[in-house]
């Protein structure tokens, strides 16, 4: 407890960001330290799990100390430790878990394991003080694409999810074939602003009637076939048009299914979360669709879209308030399901 506030430390290490934050009363950010490995993995065109784990191990102690120092607290002031326990890269998860358990054991502070997607959803509680469940959530990132009916702070129903690539994966793969580099999402978003989103009609995959699941492998193949076809014919390729048309096709499907889910469940609020929530075209298209349907859209600032400790601290706080804690047998679960 510090200045009468309940202090939570949030630890996130599910992929390639080593992130620790200090949050007061579940929603007030005291510090948010993120050590990114983008430059490390860029040369490989994607995250290499073993390298990610090694860098988490090297970085976590310094990130931990910076989080405490920036917040102006010590571990005596911290009331709760929250840590991502899944899903994610198992080696990366284990580094954060080991650190969280060691600190909890040494200080006697309670420990709460947090689902990574619950963390992403919770980032909106920090960004919007008035936001409370229930609402519909769209989680879009490098590893996840799902539509979630958020019934309460700790109660979820997954209505739809990707059957193959997550949307962020699709962006990375298309960026790679275009020679743009890594990570692909921001690069395609930037290039697409210079192109015509209707220049090329890539496939929109809606799957079975009324399905809220996603499939992005077909559009990735469609882009590859288009590029190969143009080159075989000796025709030029406008990369900006390819990026814009690809992005448009993906967002058409995501926006349509998210709006359908909200209308089906009679939800008047949609929360967007995850790294791809920073995509400007998604924000524009979903915002327009929500306005048309009389739905309010919530989307956190970019710093809370990517993986961070703030979202884990917030989720841990609400789990703790509901009496949900973890013991030292807490383990890493790379394919942990969300529904609770």
The string of secondary-structure elements, in order, is: EEEHHEHEHEEEHHHHEHEH
User: Structural class per helix/strand content?
Assistant: alpha/beta
The percent range for strand residues is 15-25%
Low-confidence stretches: none
Major beta sheet, strand line-up: 3-2-1-4-5
**How many helices?**
10
Tell me how many strands there are. 10
* Corresponding CATH superfamily of the largest domain: ATPase, nucleotide binding domain
User: The CATH topology of the largest domain is what?
Assistant: Nucleotidyltransferase, domain 5
Largest sheet: 5 strands, mixed
CATH architecture classification name of the largest domain: 2-Layer Sandwich
- N-to-C terminal Cα separation, in Å? 29 Å
Tell me the name of the CATH class of the largest domain.
Alpha Beta
| Count of domain modules | 2
Report the mean per-residue pLDDT as an integer.
94
User: What form results from the Cα inertia axes?
Assistant: globular
What does it look like?
This protein is an alpha/beta fold and 340 residues long. The protein folds into two domains: 7-123 and 305-321, Nucleotidyltransferase, domain 5; 133-299, Nucleotidyltransferase, domain 5. The protein contains ten helices and ten strands. The strands form two sheets. The chain has a five-stranded mixed sheet with strand order 3-2-1-4-5, sandwiched between helices. Strands 8-7-6-9-10 form a five-stranded mixed sheet, sandwiched between helices. Strand 9, helix 9 (280-293) and strand 10 form a beta-alpha-beta unit. Helix 5 crosses helix 6 (184-192), helix 5 packs antiparallel against helix 8 and helix 6 packs across helix 8 (239-264). It is globular. It starts with 6 loop residues before the first strand and ends in a 19-residue tail after the last helix. The model has no long low-confidence stretch (mean pLDDT 94).
């Amino acid at each position: 407890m510090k200045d009468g506030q309940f202090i939570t430390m949030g630890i996130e290490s599910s992929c390639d960001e080593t992130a620790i934050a200090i949050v007061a009363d579940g929603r007030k950010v005291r510090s948010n330290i993120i050590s990114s490995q983008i430059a490390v993995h860029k040369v490989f065109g994607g995250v290499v799990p073993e390298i990610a784990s090694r860098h988490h191990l090297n970085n976590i102690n310094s990130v931990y100390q910076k989080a405490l120092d920036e917040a102006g607290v010590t571990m005596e002031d911290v009331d709760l430790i929250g840590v991502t326990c899944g899903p994610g890269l198992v080696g990366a998860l284990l580094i954060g878990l080991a650190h969280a358990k060691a600190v909890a054991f040494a200080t006697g502070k309670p420990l709460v394991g947090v689902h990574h997607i619950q963390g992403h959803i919770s980032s909106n509680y920090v960004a919007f003080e008035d936001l409370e469940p229930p609402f519909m959530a769209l989680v879009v990132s490098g590893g996840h694409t799902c539509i979630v009916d958020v019934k309460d702070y700790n109660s979820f129903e997954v209505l739809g999810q990707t059957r193959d690539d997550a949307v962020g994966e699709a962006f990375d793969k298309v960026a790679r074939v275009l020679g743009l580099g890594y990570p692909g999402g921001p690069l395609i978003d930037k290039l697409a602003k210079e192109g015509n989103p209707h220049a090329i009609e890539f496939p929109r995959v809606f799957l079975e009637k009324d399905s809220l699941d996603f499939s992005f492998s077909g559009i990735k193949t469609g882009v590859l076939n288009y590029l190969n076809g143009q080159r075989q014919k000796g025709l030029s390729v406008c990369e900006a048009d390819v990026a814009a048309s690809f992005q448009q096709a993906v967002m058409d499907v995501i926006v349509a299914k998210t709006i359908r889910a909200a209308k089906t469940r009679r939800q008047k609020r949609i929360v967007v979360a995850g790294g791809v929530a920073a995509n400007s075209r998604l924000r524009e298209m979903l915002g327009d669709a929500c306005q048309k349907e009389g739905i309010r859209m919530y989307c956190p600032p970019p710093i809370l879209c990517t993986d961070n400790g703030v979202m884990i601290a917030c989720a841990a706080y609400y789990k703790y308030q509901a009496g949900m804690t973890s013991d030292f047998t807490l383990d890493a679960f790379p394919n942990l399901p969300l529904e609770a």
